Amino acid sequence: MPFEPYFNRWCHIADHGVGPHRLSVLTEQRGVRGAIAPDLDASVLDNYDDLQRLERWATQLGLPNAASVLHNTLPETARARSGHVGEILLTESVPELFPDFIVPIKRLRWIDGRNMALRGEDFIGVDRRGRQVRFLKAESKSRAVLAAGVIQEARAALNNNGGRPSGYALLFIARRLDEIGQRDLSAVFLENAVRQQIEDAQMVHLLFTFSGNDSTELLRTNLRTCAGPIQQQAVGLVIADHQEFILAIYTRLANAAQLSTRAAELNSLLVASDAEFLAGDVENAITHTLEFARIAFAIAPFDLEEFPAGWENIIRQWILGYSLADIAGGIESEVVSFAENALVYKLVWALEAIRVRAIAAGELDEDSFNGFTAMSVETGTNLYAASLLIHCGLASRAAAIKAVNDENGDFTDTREMRRWIFSPAVKRRTLDANWPTPTTGSLWRDFVDGLGRETLEKWDETNFETAINWHAEPLRVGTPVRIKNGKAVFSIKWDPVGELLQEISDTGGVFVAHVSNTRQTILGQYIGPRR
Q1: Local structure of residue 491 (DSSP, 8 states)
Q2: CB 375 within 8 A of CB 397
Q3: Where would I find the H helices in 234-347?
Q4: What is the β-pairing status of strands 134-143 and 203-211?
């Protein structure tokens, strides 16, 4: 589980001179958070335990037990999480912002309890590249709303012990380095802990803040009070949704741990249902798909707050190709919402997440899966040929099922599908305005006409995260939304819910979008022709 440095990819960095000192203010670049999230999460986890050790334990103990280790490591209280993330972001920023210094140890790996703070300085870095060893003494503060008093506390901690690292902190690092076999570097810290003769020129102070409000003026004012020969640096990382940002990190890590505890079972159910759909054993395939759904719907982010009455039978009838009107039985709005949000979105997401995870973790190879389960759930039919028609753009589930049944469609790829569509028998059927059904004939002909036209335009995929002006209460985090004309935002049921503050260029493609963790932006992808 390696991770790449992410601060230069994630943040805009503005450097300011404050007398002889330097202030760097980091603000997020719009739309980048989702891209750096995997590296951010891996770095947080790496600060609690060595990633290679976790991978070894996963092999030795099995994923459920390894997940339990992780669960018992991560802090539970909001205060502990805030402090830990502040210290982690400080630790991970140093190699990018202060490349002369190295991070000798990640202190949270030796924490006394998961909801406690470590004693001593928040961070001590070391630079051995010159003739003289230099030390970076740092303090981090994490607050949703940062105040001058908090910065003064950090400054007082930096000035303690004459501005030098304490002997306790130096010995702590020396012991940890000795334990992990870095004896040369351990000797540097041991010698300075014993001699206590670090010169002013060997010291650099760093005050690091992670806050929801802009810390620029607070840090600038504080730096102006700094006198003396020790070099001073300050870094302010500003994340507007500070608390939600922290919660999202630990939620993702906890969800990953929870998913790992059921991974073997979910892998087995998905492999079985894929094979059964392929073999035409639909009843057993649906049984295994339902068992998968019962587990997945209890694990975030695939969890559901409410289930319609008889939801398991709804899934069964949906996969068997029943019309929504037949399934609904007087609760049309609930069934439509369940089909669109729970089945087409969350259950398909869970199926794909398990497949990708199993392959990436080396638990199963790619040939173990054929995708039939996900296609059946997404398109609402166990007929693969009908699913393929829908995937290729036919805008009617009923038309796809009826056409395949009427003309013995048994194709398994798009080339065979085109050959079937333009066969004499199907072409004769297409001339009938009421085929496949009176209400879907025009949709069928539009689909066939589109296949007959050559498309010369190349398509691009663009990620975006754009602020939204909600018409009323914001939708829940992760709720899928529709976007029209690059600006208007609708629910899955086409209820208008808001408007993007910045229009996204719409060249005739499609949007795949959902409500972000902040609930103040829409996050997603636009896939469309180049212009």
Answers
A1: -
A2: no
A3: 242-261, 263-279, 282-296, 311-319, 324-328, 332-337
A4: parallel
Label residues 521-531 b or e (16+ Cβ within 10 Å = b): bbbbebebeee
- Tell whether the torsion through CA atoms of 96, 52, 117 and 119 is positive or negative: negative
Per-residue tokens: 114: 């998961």
Write the single-letter amino acid at 137. K
Strands of 231-238's sheet in order across: 11-18, 21-28, 231-238, 203-211, 134-143, 123-127
* 490 contacts 449 by C-beta, under 8 angstroms: no
3-state helix, strand, coil in the chain (%, to 5): 50, 15, 35
pLDDT of 291-309, one tens digit each? 999 999 988 778 888 898 8
DSSP string, 353-414: HHHHHHHHTTSS-GGG--SHHHHHHHHT-S-HHHHHHHHTT---HHHHHHHHHHTT----SH
What's the rounded Cα separation, in Å, for the pair 197 and 475? 59
**CA–CA separation, 150 and 87 (whole Å):** 15
Instruction: Determine contact, residues 155/232, Cβ cutoff 8 Å.
Output: no
Q: Taking phi first (over 0 means left), then psi (-120 to 50 degrees means alpha), and beta for anything else, what does residue 127 get?
A: beta
Percent of the chain's residues with pLDDT above 70: 91
| Token representation of residue 411 | 């194709």
**Do the strands 521-529 and 459-470 form a parallel or antiparallel pair, or are they unpaired?**
antiparallel
Residue where the block lists tokens 């963790």: 517
Phi, psi of 122 (to 5 degrees): -70, -30
pLDDT tens-digit profile of 222-268? 999 998 999 999 999 999 999 999 998 888 887 777 777 788 899 99
- Are the beta carbons of 351 and 378 closer than 8 angstroms? no
